[in-house]
Write a structure and sequence with these properties.
Shape: elongated
Keywords: Signal
Structural class: mainly beta
Strand content: over 45%
Number of helices: 1
Organism: Streptomyces adustus
Protein name: Beta-xylosidase
Distance between the termini: 85 Å
Number of domains: 3
Amino acid sequence: MGPEPRRSLWRRWASLLGATALAVTAGGALACPAGAASTNVDFAAHCIPPAIAGLPPIDGTTTANIAVDNTSPKVGDTVTVTYTVVTAAASNPTDLALPADIMTPTGTVVLGGAQTGNVTVAGPKKNDPVPGRGAFPSFSMTGTFTVTAPGAITLSPGDYNIHTSYILELDTPCTVITPPAPVSETITATDVSQPNTRAITLGSASGNPGDSVTVTGSNFTPGATVTLAGRAGTAQTADTATVTADAQGAFSGPLVVNDRTTTGVVAYEGGAWSSDKGAGPAAYVVVDNTPVPEGSQKLTTTVRAGTLSMSQAGDAVQLSAVDFGQGGASAGSLQTVTVKDFRGGPAGWSLTGKVTDFTGPGAKIDAGKLSWTPACATKAGSPSTCQAGSAGTVGTSGATLAAAPDSALTGGEFTVDAGLSLNVPAFTPPGTYSGILTLTLT
């Protein structure tokens, strides 16, 4: 090849690469994904064309958009982010047409607010042909991040880079001149509610006025100050004491009970009773030891307290199959659980569940992909009324399946069911996957 053909080829490369360098700040309008509520934002970008293009740095205005697949995640959820360069100030400055599918974009999305950091995003090697002197197409990049903190999390477009694969492999990086760029999307993350597993037992179920009852607790916060208190129905009495939980969250301490109206004993962390940080009430009766008047007879009978128990209709659930490449909901129904509360007294109950990851042939499906829709029915004549838990994710942290509240008199028989749905990713390797769902009644 002679000198003149070589110079001609280099001029062609330079024209092409100069046009490609401008592509990172140019593009036609591209609509946000359906249902997205994010905002297009403008920011000044500084782009450096490949040295072979012989062009100076390009400063221009980029219009971008950040969209997410979930605007109300929970801590621990994975959020998919889409960063779209929508429009810019430039177009192809040459008469040279560019072929399709030569541009591969990468970039970052900047997190702020309750959670900070950068999310790496990348786009496919895909673009429409660009005619000479025509506008450059928009491009989108996607990535994911795990929510680590509750609260409002802002998302702003960050630096990005265009890699071109036409004649030569070249990069054109673009940086935000005055970071951070404006916020395009805000999501609000909520904390995962942890099931309360605190529990107490009493050394005796009854006593005379002024007697001391030993209260033993477990699963409290290690080192926490715990208040022991008498309850008359749903009201706290003046009978209180404090103990300190040990390094394992356990304690044992006395409570002197004087109030004759006492129906139970509770234990709680903090300055006041809370079902989130408390346990009980455990049934307790103050014996009426009033002297019998002369010429009278005191008649006494005993109703023996039973237990809080549950049984299951079975221990295996077969979820429906899904197709490789499509994935989706693998559905089934929880084996019916029967709860019997024959304790008497004022204490309610809570039935919670948590699940492990689903393991299979060299792969797994995350536990957070399992959700349920609980239902609960109360047998006629039961003093308590069963309440179904909220529909949503089960996961390794767990969720409430059903509960019955504290009341002056509780008890009864209840049946608990739930619809189950495992969201299987589209390209999960074929095979059988199993996870263990553990139910806990407290």
